[in-house]
Amino acid sequence: xxxxxxxxxxxxxxxxxxxxxxxxxxxxxxxxxxxxxxxxxxxxxxxxxxxxxxxxxxxxxxxxxxxxxxxxxxxx
Length: 76
Fold this sequence. Notes:
Layout: H1 2-38
């Protein structure tokens, strides 16, 4: 009894899977048609390229002044 139940369950599941697969294929075909329609792009006129600004010259920094040690005077 359980074997026949099991077999019928398997056949029902296989039939359901095939039905779902066919629906999925239909949806894929519909999607392909939609993509083909929207794939047509409008031709856009290209604007001439902008001239790039001249690069600024790097400003060299002056080296730090060397500090001179001052002689300390003793106060009386």
